[in-house]
């Protein structure tokens, strides 16, 4: 990764906290609205939809996720932090609306001509990022990270053309 400067991730992104959806509207009965929770994240990163949590209440428009949105787990119930900080891309959905729940961070890229979302998805699965997240996490039984800790991660990003090439190589 030549001719690239080392910067904090916060120079490129904002991480938005999710919404605290009301528990009284959680349901096991399928609805079109699905809460994205840490349970939707695979160990090592990626989205899984085996354990969906449904919601049957009012939804603020600012907390509806779109296909391709990059999200991160902000809380992990395992002592090892199995999914803490890992990324996932919101999948295409038919008849489902994925909701940005409070334990999830939405990565908003400042300039998509500087940083490719798909490249960042793979970059945030690397061991140095993982070490940073686990090393700065709070809590012993329930592990937490924050938007500030995520933005503090220092990385070197190649130019956008190389990012897109790298992404294509990993596919």
Short note summarizing the structure:
This protein is α+β, with helices and mostly antiparallel strands and 171 residues long.
Keywords, please?
single chain, 171 residues, alpha+beta, Adenine-n6-DNA-methyltransferase TaqI, Chain A, domain 2, four-stranded antiparallel β-sheet, four-stranded mixed β-sheet, 20% helix, 24% strand
Would you give an account of this structure?
There is one protein chain. The protein is α+β, with helices and mostly antiparallel strands. The chain has one domain: Adenine-n6-DNA-methyltransferase TaqI, Chain A, domain 2 (Alpha-Beta Complex), CATH 3.90.220.20. Helices cover about 20% and strands about 25% of the residues. The protein is built from 4 helices and 12 strands. Strands 2-10-6-8 form a 4-stranded antiparallel sheet. Strands 3-5-4-9 form a 4-stranded mixed sheet, with no helix packed on it. It starts with 5 loop residues before the first strand and ends with a helix.
**Total helical elements:** 4
User: What is the succession of H and E elements?
Assistant: EEEEEEEEEEHHEHEH
> Uncertain segments of ≥5 residues (pLDDT<50)?
none
Largest sheet: 4 strands, antiparallel
Structural class by helix and strand composition: alpha+beta
| CA-based gyration radius | 16 Å
Question: What is the overall pLDDT average?
Answer: 92
Domains (count): 1
Ends apart, CA distance between termini: 19 Å
CATH class: Alpha Beta
Helical proportion?
10-25%
**CATH-level-4 superfamily name:** DNA methylase specificity domains
Coarse morphology: globular
**SS strand fraction:** 15-25%
Strand order of the largest sheet: 2-10-6-8
């Amino acid at each position: 990764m030549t001719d690239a400067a080392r910067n904090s991730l916060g120079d490129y992104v904002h991480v938005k906290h999710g919404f605290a959806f009301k528990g009284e509207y959680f349901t096991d009965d399928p609805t079109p609205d699905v809460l994205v929770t840490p349970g939707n994240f695979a160990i090592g990163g990626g989205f899984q939809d085996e354990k969906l949590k449904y919601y049957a209440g009012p939804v603020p428009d600012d907390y509806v996720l779109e296909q391709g949105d990059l999200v991160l787990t902000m809380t992990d119930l395992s002592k090892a932090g199995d999914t803490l900080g890992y990324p996932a891309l919101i999948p295409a959905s038919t008849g489902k609306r994925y909701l940005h729940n409070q334990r999830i961070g939405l990565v908003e890229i400042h300039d998509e001509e500087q940083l490719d979302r798909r490249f960042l998805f793979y970059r945030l699965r690397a061991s140095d990022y993982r070490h940073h997240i686990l090393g700065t996490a709070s809590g012993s039984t329930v592990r937490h990270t924050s938007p500030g800790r995520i933005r503090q991660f220092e990385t070197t990003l190649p130019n956008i053309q190389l990012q897109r090439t790298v992404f294509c190589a990993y596919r």
